[in-house]
Amino acid sequence: MTDVTKVAARPYPFSAPDRLNLDPLYAELRRVEPLVRVRLPFGEQAWLATRHADVRTVLGDARFSRAASVGRDEPRLTPRQIEGGILSMDPPEHTRLRRLVAKAFTARRVEQLRPRTRQIADELIDAMVAAGPPADLVEHFATPLPIQVICELLGVPFADRHLFHVWSEAIVSTTSLSPEQIQEYLDNLHGYIGELVQQRRRQPTDDLICAMVQAHDEHQDRFTEQEVVQLAAGLLAAGHETTVTQLPNFAYVLLTHPEQLAWLRADPARVPTAVEELMRYVPLGVASAFARYATEDVEVGGVLVRAGEPVIGSLSSANRDETVFTDPDRLDLGRETNPHIGFGHGVHHCLGAQLARMELQVGIGALVARLPELRIAVPEPELTWKSGMIVRGLARMPVAW
Amino acid sequence: MVSTGWRIEVDAERCIGSGSCVGMAPAHFRMESGLATPITTAVEPTETVIDAAESCPVEAIAVRDHDDTLIAPS
Ligand code: HEM
Ligand code: HEM
Ligand code: SF4
């Protein structure tokens, strides 16, 4: 057992992000020190779990709590602490809110959105082809595709995307905005959604925001209006930068692994399996956050975590665990058993996971099928990567075909 | 067995091992080799198992009452 007070905490993230490469320190820690003290840019020190089994315990075991983070100086990547919301709740509070929207995101419901998503993808590719190469895959494909889908699902006018894109981008910029600006943008976003909620009351529509408003009005005792607004804003934002960033990341990985890409092209039925492997392989987050607080003493990775101590689980490290994945650093699009946790685990397992999967399958499938000559249009060192953000991804991706 | 009780099942073909049900209803589900499984098939009627079934992302959980009527997912 380790005595916390004697261990020096490592600065975390361990290093500045280098494209999609994962710091080799994770592999070493999994081997020799699976639970390690870390210090994030803001907030209190924490433990970091790096093995697949331990990360699943931290995320899935009821002895670890997100609600206990409220009121603590939570370890985090951004100056401002985002308090409240679904990701800061435990069952049964969490269940109450999650059930309000869970039905809209089941695999069955998401399947119904697939034809429309295909149509959007095809139209975007048509427009790229009509304008001729080069095109920026981020701006012309990966950004509008998921945003249009989430807008239609929620019932947010796509025409307003320039407004809420600015506001939501502001939340995840780790350094470039002041706390006051971040608060201002958040207020704008919540004000905007609040207005849509009022509109639904006057004139019901056939979308998720309206369904949430109706559930709220029927069960005033179960949800506050503030919760409905915050959840809808969270869906709009979480449905944004994640898939928007992963689509170009996936395209980049495929274009830099030509043999794997050729294997994928040979049979479109391989796309879903390939998307799972890309989810495992691409470390989207620069670092993991959203620490879980132990509610009692729990042993994790050979260390006794004391009640009240925060533990962070590294999804990216878990997804490279050699005891779970054969040859984990190799991209193998046909990988058969793939219990990756790229969408998390436990009660907070990504609400949008089935939607994101469908969007990624449609997006990658369309690029592969329609642009067989797709290539990156600049030499690799000239690609610009996002900086100061929570996620890894390309700022722009010039492509030709 | 109680004749007024409910039965819970997890379809292992569908389950994606999200761990959501185990987190929501740890008294009723546990993980086994990466997939969820009921701790006991027969349960006393409780909202918790309905919550789990309604929240499962792939609708792999079925809750039935004593005469086999599907209670959840709706
Ligand atoms: C791996 C990446 C990310 C994950 C898993 C994630 C997850 C989430 C979740 C679950 C929420 C809802 C939390 C709540 O209601 O308390 C949320 C809120 C939010 N996220 Fe993220 N997010 C990610 C990246 C981003 C990015 C890249 C952006 C910006 C474009 C963003 C912007 C926001 C905003 C604006 C909110 C709403 C905050 C509020 O209403 O207080 N997130 N995020
Ligand atoms: C490739 C795309 C995406 C990835 C990699 C991703 C990843 C994740 C992860 C890892 C978590 C768990 C965070 C934690 O437990 O600490 C999460 C939670 C969540 N995600 Fe996603 N996400 C994606 C897309 C989406 C989309 C499209 C939506 C919305 C429609 C969404 C909505 C949410 C929400 C609401 C939660 C919080 C769930 C809860 O607290 O119960 N995500 N996501
Ligand atoms: S919630 Fe559904 S998919 Fe997730 S572990 Fe339980 S049964 Fe499996």
UniProtKB/TrEMBL annotation, chain A:
InterPro entries: Cyt_P450, Cyt_P450_B, Cyt_P450_CS, Cyt_P450_sf. Transmembrane segments: none annotated. Keywords: Heme, Iron, Metal-binding, Monooxygenase, Oxidoreductase. Coiled coil: none annotated. It holds the Pfam family p450. Gene3D superfamilies: Cytochrome P450. Belongs to the cytochrome P450 family. PANTHER family: CYTOCHROME P450 YJIB-RELATED, P450, PUTATIVE (EUROFUNG)-RELATED. This is Cytochrome P450.
From TrEMBL, chain B:
Its cofactor is [3Fe-4S] cluster. SUPFAM superfamilies: 4Fe-4S ferredoxins (SSF54862). Pfam families: Fer4_13. Residues 6-34 form the 4Fe-4S ferredoxin-type domain. This is Ferredoxin. The keyword Thylakoid does not apply. The keyword Electron transport applies. Ferredoxins are iron-sulfur proteins that transfer electrons in a wide variety of metabolic reactions. Keywords: 3Fe-4S, Electron transport, Iron, Iron-sulfur, Metal-binding, Transport. InterPro entries: 3Fe4S_ferredoxin (IPR001080), 4Fe4S_Fe-S-bd (IPR017896), Fe-S_cluster_ET (IPR051269).
